[in-house]
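Example record for the data management plan.
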Amino acid sequence: MNNPPTGSIFLSGRYFTLQEISQIQETVRIFYRLSFTELVRTLCEHLQWVTPAGQYKVDSCAKALKKLQAQGLLKLPARRAHVRVKQQIVFSARTAPEEELVGTVRDFEPIAVEPVAKADLKLWNEYVERYHPLGYKQPFGAHQRYFIRERSGRRLGCILFAASAWALSVRDQWIGWSERDRAQRLNWVVANTRFLLFPWVRIRNLGSKALSLAVGRIRDDWQRRYGYRPVLLETFVDPQRYRGTIYQAGNWIRLGVTAGRGRMDRWGQYLSTPKIIYVYPLVSEFRSFLRGDINNTSDDKSKHTVATSGTERAEAGTKRSR
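Corresponding structural encoding:
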């Protein structure tokens, strides 16, 4: 692991040298007429604060600026008030219930899990809002939507991978990382936040098949879209609704139960129902990478090699559900 520069400040997942702090202060002073959003983008450009795909890290920069202001190191321009109106999803005939499909995976092979094209984003959103118990919520940060299809092209369900939970004590202890490690490398953990098979689909073993296909391609799809490959997946199962069968069948590791807080809740302000936590390592050296002991995951031979002990696999069990 590289040692931080002397006198540096750690904010929003990166170190800032004293010179960089001075540059930020000077930029804020000179461009005081810019809106907050314009200022953030300007600083991202000046600091070359970008994702591996070259996109500005707007959210991280905004949080860093607010922290610097809270410490009295700069004064930000006043935020311009605006009201966000959530767009209501109107159900159309395109997502109406269809004729029941009954059988086994073999009857409908090949099954495919395909990234959702830009033209079909609203259709995917409509399906999820209409048929998933949690409905549709705008994914924040990096994310990837999928449609599940059978051999004739009919849609069978929807899958979403998105940002991982900010803090999970069970997960963080299992990985063995510190708060600073987590702040720097949380984006390398990706969450399966939606998994939906349409109500008229009664195809045995389809859930585990579709999940396996998604797991098999998520790293390459993330690389194409965001410029890096995640090393660990996580998901949360509501025991009041499901038992997590597809994750158990796929050798996902059951870590424990959440504390009953929202996924991105850092201070315990947003309560939710406790969920069962499952994780799935995508590379054998995932712990070393997440702890900063190694700096890349470019070794393709490690893809989809799950580093789990016999005990960890046993924890996954084989009970039927979801």
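Summary line stored alongside the record: The CA atoms of residues 108 and 150 lie 6 Å apart.
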